[in-house]
Amino acid sequence: MALTINPNLCPQNHRCPIIKVCPMEAISQEGKGLPVIDDSKCAECMDCVSSCPMQAVQQNLKSFLHTVTN
3-state DSSP: the chain helix, strand, coil percent, rounded to 5? Predict the structure, then answer.
């Protein structure tokens, strides 16, 4: 299942702490904007989910269902 960052939970006003915990270097951030998870690099280890203080990293069920049904 793809992981995504919920913009309603992420304050986007700081350097995101989950970037450092990703072993695949799949998370990037431009300035202090919304971090982005690169699905092609993400191993879904869930380190970012457990490390996000705002609980903004979530499984993207909609993306998963689209992939499974197509």
Answer: 25, 15, 60
